[in-house]
């Protein structure tokens, strides 16, 4: 990322490591099956969270940045990638918040992101699922019922979106069976983008190095807003936190939400955080996140199913399974 050009004071303030308050699960409530609701405050911290002072490192200087995005995902559970000019043009040709109601624009965005992630991960087949829009000006609402596409606020709560028993993962497996990909290893990748003209200067995202997280740190809970099963996270001095300072619209923060390989890093804790160096009058954070299902065929046992999918409108298939070019 080129930081040699003249930066605004607000962007420069985002650079470097920073000590912040992370909202972790209050250990006294770890046995409560249902998570507490969000407080009506900026960031919408849950009522059963506690503040823990934590150092967040600027990931732009981490050595893993020299690895491919897929290698970064496998090593630490997260990474950074850039959109191509064609991909960026496709998803910036309309107001991103039109996707609250415009199904065609939502479909365009999801298909474009799926194509980008399929290429970055070398998946045999990829498909976007949920799409969420956020504005930091929305207070106290970070989770909404399924089907409500309204913009939400940032999530000031250390969590993982899935557990191994989450209903959504069962639905993904059923989908794979129906498509003839039932035995394929798969991964769920979250793609987080800044959709504003200015770099992120309020409520940036932080991700935890998945290799620094112990299984005992992850506490399964029911989200009261939509009854999804999530992980809240207990604080640990082992955790290593990172943020990519001042993310721009051509960049994608990738992090693993789930990996079917139980020998891999399967879950990446993440959260938005209130950056103490945000200047007065900084632009509102505007972001979009999409989950992408990535199925792999390392032994090429599913060629027939993938060739059928290549001639359907279901997701993006790797080019080696078809002589035609998948559209984004």
Kindly describe this structure.
With 328 residues, this protein is α+β, with helices and mostly antiparallel strands. Helices cover 18% and strands 26% of the residues. It is built from six helices and 14 strands. It has helices spanning 9-12, 69-76, 85-91, 103-121, 167-179, 303-310, and strands at residues 18-25, 49-58, 78-82, 125-135, 159-160, 186-194, 205-208, 218-222, 229-233, 241-243, 251-259, 270-272, 286-295, 316-317. The strands form three sheets. Strands 3-11-6-13-4-14 form a six-stranded antiparallel β-sheet, with helices on both faces. A five-stranded mixed β-sheet has the order 1-2-10-7-12, with no helix packed on it. Strands 5-9-8 form a three-stranded antiparallel β-sheet, with no helix packed on it. A hairpin with a 6-residue loop joins strand 8 and strand 9. Mean pLDDT is 93; it is low at 324-328.
